[in-house]
Amino acid sequence: MKASSENKQKNLAYDLFNEMQKNNLEYTYRGNFSSKISDTILTLAENNLNNADTPLKTRKRVYFIMVEGLQNVTRHQIESISDDLKKYPSLFVVQRKSHGYFITTGNLIKTEEKENITKLITKINSLNPTELKKFSLEILDSGEISSKGGAGLGLVEMARRSKNKLLFDFIKVDDKHLFFYMHTKIPHTDNATESKTVTEDNSLETIKDLHQVLENQNIILNFSGNFTQDTLINLLSIIEKQLQGTVILKMKVFNLMVEMLQNVVKHAENYKRNDVVGKHAIFYISESDNDIKFTTGNYIKNEIIDKFKSKLDTINSLDKDKLADYYNKSLFNFEDNTDVHTGLGLIDIKMKSKNSFKYDFYKIDDDYSFFSLQTIITKMKTEISKFTSKAEADTPEVILDAETGKMSFIGRSIPENAVTFFKPIHEWVNNYAQSPIENTEITFKLDYYNTASDKQIAKLMLAFENISENNKLVIKWKYIKGDYEMMNDGTKYQELTSLNIKLIEE
Fold first, then answer.
1. Secondary structure of residue 51 in the 3-state scheme
2. Starting at the edge strand that comes first in sequence, how are the strands of the sheet with 406-413 ordered?
C-alpha cells in the first residue's frame, strides 16, 4: 500500500532516515556555530547519551570530545565569507556504533592552513599516551596559545581522551578554501584488541556521503532518533538561535516547528527498531532562495492510513476562509476523540504556512508504514516602497526609507487612535526587518507624545532590537535643551532595551 501527494522527493525523508538509522547517525547539524548554539547542541546530545545504554565512562569521554570539537569549530570557522561560500556551513555529527561513538566536525579553512594542520595531527597520531601527556604540558608551558585558543591543545586532549588516533580529511572547495573534517572515535573499551582503531573504520566516508546529501538538499538541521518533549525543546532552541535578523519569518519558522515537532512527539507510533522501542522519527529543515521546507517522518499504523489520508486531502483542498471555519468547528468538537491525527495541529500547519503540505506513506510491513510530511514557507521578496506621512497637528512627520536604511519621527504624537496611526508603520518596519541593509539609522525628535503613542513606540523598539541582532542599528534620540522629560524617555529606552541609543541635546 502506497499513497502520496505530488512530491518529487517523496522518498527522501525515509531514505535519509533509513540511512541514518542503519549507520546509527543520531544527530547532524549544518550552520554557523556560536557558543549559545553549541550549548544547546550539547544539551540535546547529552540527553541522547543519558538515554542510551552506554557506560558512564564512555559518556564522559564523548561529552568532553563534543565540547572540544564544538569549541574548535566555533573558534576557527571563517567568519566573513562570500555568498558563494555560504553554502558550506560548518558541520557537527554524532554517530553511535556497537563498539563506540564517533564525533565528526567540519568547517571551512584556508588552503594555506592545510600543511600545518596535517603536520600537527600526524605528530599527535604518532605519540603514545605518555608522550601525548608530555606534549600537552609542553604546549601549556610554552604559552603558544593563539587568540582563538589554538596551538593544537584541543586536538591533543581529544586524542588523549579518546585513546585513539584522529582521522581527518580535506575536500577542495575552491583555490583558496578547503572543507576540513575531523573524526574522533571513542570506544566503549580501552582494550585495543576489542576496539578497532579509527583508521580501520570507514565511518568517516559514511559521514562525507551524508554531508554531500545535506549539501545537495541544503539541509541545515537534521535530527534522527527517539523523539521526546526534551528533543522538541532543544531543537526549537537551536533553530531559534540560528535564525537571526528577521521578525515575521523567524516567528513563522518557530511556530511551524512547534506544530511539526509536536505532531511527531504526540502521534508517532512506538516501533521496535534495532532492538530499541520508541518514537523513531526524523526532522529536517532545508532552505533555498525562495522558501524554507520543514519535513518530518515517523512510523504510523497501516489501519488508520485511509482515514488519515482523507483528512490530509480535505485540509489541503480548503482555501483560507474555509480552512478557518474548519479549524473553528474542530476546536469545539469534543465528541470525536477516536482519531488522534485529526487534531488542530495539521490544520494550523497549513494556516501558518499558507501552502498545502506534501505527504507520503511508505509501507514497512503488514502493520506499519513510514509517514513523511512536508510543509513550505515562501520567503517574501517584495520590494519595500518608501513610506512617508506628513506632520499634522496631532501626528508627527514619519519618513521610512528602506533604500538608505534611514527612518525619522519628528513632531508631536497625540493621535485620537494611536493603534490606527502606527499600524502601517509597524507593518513597514516588520517587512524591512526581513531584509534590512547593513546600517540602519533611526531618528526620534518628538516634542511630545501621549501614553498611547508611548506603547506603540515601545513596540517599534522591539522590532528594532530584532534588526540589531545581525545588523548595525543606531537610534538618535533628539530633544530640545532643557527638556528633561524627553531626555528621561530616551534614557528609559536605553535601560529597557539592548539598542544603541544616542541621546542628543539640541
1. helix
2. 387-389, 397-401, 406-413, 439-449, 472-479, 501-505
Q: What is the DSSP string of 341-374?
A: GGSHHHHHHHHHH-S--EEEEEE-SSSEEEEEEE
Burial class (CB within 10 angstroms; exposed 0-12, middle 13-18, buried 19+) of 83? exposed
Whether the predicted pLDDT of 503 surpasses 70: yes
Spell out the SS3 assignment of 446-484: EEEECHHHHHHHHHHHHHHHHHHCCCEEEEEEEECCCCH
Query: Can you tell me whether residue 287 is helix, strand or coil?
Result: strand
Q: Which tens digit of pLDDT belongs to each residue from 418-467? A: 999 999 999 999 888 887 888 899 999 999 999 999 999 999 999 999 89
Conformation bin of residue 407: beta by default, left when phi > 0, alpha when psi is -120 to 50: beta
The full DSSP string for 380-393 is: P-PPPPPEEE---S
pLDDT digits (tens, 9 = 90+) for 223-281: 777 787 877 887 777 766 665 444 455 667 777 888 888 888 888 888 887 666 788 88
Going by C-alpha positions, the residue among 238, 309, 300 that lies closest to residue 266 is 300
32-217 against 387-505: fold identical:
no
Q: Which CATH number fits domain 32-217: 3.40.30, 2.60.40, 3.30.565, 3.30.160?
A: 3.30.565
* d(C-alpha 421, C-alpha 413), whole Å: 10
